Amino acid sequence: MAELLHWIVALLASAFEVALIVFLCFTYQNRKTLRKENRRMRKEREVIFEFVHQIGEVFADAEEIDMDTLLKRILFFSTKTNKAAAGAIYLFNKDRDRLFARAVSGIFPPLYDAESVKTERLLAKSQHLETLVKERSVNSGEGLVGAAAAVGTGIIIEDGEVDARVPTYKDAFLQIHSLLIVPMRFGNEVLGVVALVNRIDGSPFTAGDLNLLQAMADQACVPIHYAGLRDALEHKKQLDRDLHAAQQIQASLLPQTLPHLDGVQLSAFNLPAYDIGGDYYDLIQIDEEHLGIAIADVSGKGIGGAMMMAVCQGVLRTRAGQEQSPARMLSELNRVLSNNLAEDMFITMLYMALNIQTRELRFARAGHERPLICRGCSNRNRELQALDSPGIAIGLTSPEVFDAVIEDMTIQLESGDEIIVYTDGITEALNEEGEEWGLENLSRLIKASPQNPESLLRTVQNTLTRYVGARQQYDDMTMFALKIN
């Protein structure tokens, strides 16, 4: 019995020793695995820190670097760290509906349209491959690149030869064995995609490679985002400089001073809705007896409208001395401008010729607002009438049709008569409730203001300012008035 008990104790001791050895071996192996994982994570962290440091140094010198240079540096570190043979960075365009390859490294095979790639051209000119990749845009959600951008998650393909999503190439230098694609995320927004193909050691990419590349891509988005903001800021500054120059040019087109005429009072104002307006007015000394008066509204605003204003002024001032008929003057303008106007652009214009001696006023109207005449505006009982005449806007029809419709009208002005012309930005001015000021309000104000033209226009301008309040206007306001003493 004692021997049996001794044997059992010995057996248990041996079992305990074996269990202890197994436990120690397991613990050692586990600690070894943890140390290996810890070294891997520390190395990965060091790689990320180094990557951020290197990119930060590049970005710190942003005054001398553009977006493409920054992307090339990011791609260089991405391919080097992940031991990839080639790679590409795709970024969204401004409309965020397509991706374009902005940086390419190594022999990066096109991920689309493999059948259209001509190997002989690639061998003859290596630059052709990069051009091929950069020229082919990718729609959001299209293929592997578009899918990674649309979904916002990475894609790893360990064996490209058995994955139907990977294009197949017969030539060895274009074959895709393994592939990594990760989105470049800044907050909740995907800026683009990083794609890497084929490890240089021939082994497939791993989940660790995917995680590392994703971490690098997310870190890279910070300088990319702010570099994009800087590019946008520089672009805006350049636009502001161009707009300022255009403003100065446009301001020089409008009369700087109005002529002083015996027995005639003149006044005008122009308020562009934007930095550069599409309204135009001018006074032209046709000859010793006649004064030409033009007011126009170009449908396109901004620089395009300003350019058309300049052309209008050039034609008017060149031809005015040779053509006293307003209708024929507008016909000449239509012939010159109609072939050069964009499809969505046209010009309404009113052109008048005043005989300074006889006070006879001839006018023609190319689709513009009708001029208003106030009879006896110095008296309390004033009559206001809109002067009608046929005509079509410049650029809307053929010269033959335009010439057949346009017609001169003549009116004899008397002492106390006042002519008021304006663009539709005056009557279509909107208040904060979206209501138009309207011709009725303008007419009522003119009838209630037995003043000289300068006082009348100042009253109109002040009234409009109060009416529209803080609401942004979308059309220019221009007004001109003349009064016979």
From TrEMBL:
InterPro entries referenced in this protein's UniProt entry, alphabetically: Bact_Sigma-Reg (IPR052016), GAF (IPR003018), GAF-like_dom_sf (IPR029016), PPM-type-like_dom_sf (IPR036457), PPM-type_phosphatase-like_dom (IPR001932)
Pfam families: GAF, SpoIIE
Gene Ontology MF terms in the entry: phosphatase activity
Keyword entries, A-Z: Hydrolase, Membrane, Transmembrane, Transmembrane helix
Limits of the PPM-type phosphatase domain: 261-484
Keyword Transmembrane: yes
Superkingdom as given in the UniProt entry: Bacteria
Protein name: SpoIIE family protein phosphatase
Transmembrane segments: 6-26
Lineage, top ranks: Bacteria, Pseudomonadati, Kiritimatiellota, Tichowtungiia, Tichowtungiales
Domain GAF: 66-234
PANTHER family (alphabetical): STAGE II SPORULATION PROTEIN E, STAGE II SPORULATION PROTEIN E-RELATED
